[in-house]
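Sorry to interrupt, but I need a hand with the structure work. Please put the record directly below this note.
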Amino acid sequence: MGAASAEPLKPDDLPLAGKQTMAWPVDPASNTVRSGSRLNKVLLLRLDSESFDPETKERAAEGVIAYSAVCTHTGCDVTNWHPDRQLLECPCHYSFYDPKEAAKVVSGPSPRRLPALPLKIVDGRLVVAKSFTGRAGFQQT
C-alpha cells in the first residue's frame, strides 16, 4: 500500500488518531500501483485497536484499518475526519461512518457500510491480506 509512491507504508507512517491517509494498493507481483480505477482507492487510519469491534480488529494490522475511499451513496470520496467523534464523513451528502465498527453507517443517506480491505504486516510494511469485504462504490437504482 503506497500513498504517493509504490513504496509500501509502515504503520508508523500513519498518525495515531489522525486524519485518514489516501492510498492505492500495489500489486506485489508486478510492483504496479493499482490506480487504474478510482474504486481501488483506499483510506487508511491508525487508531487504538482496543476500541475496535471484533470484526474490525480481525482486519486491522497494528491498529491500521483500511476501507474503500468511495462513498457507497453516490460515489464521492470520503475525505472528512472528525477526530473528536472518530468518525469518517463523506462531504457530498453527509454520510458518517464509524471506522471502529467495520465502517457502519452512523447517519446520512448511505445505504451500506464502506467495504473494508483486510491488512497484514509483512517485513514491517502494510500489505493487503484479502480482497475488499464488499463491492466498492455505489449502485445506481
Q: What stands out?
A: The CA atoms of residues 37 and 63 lie 27 Å apart.
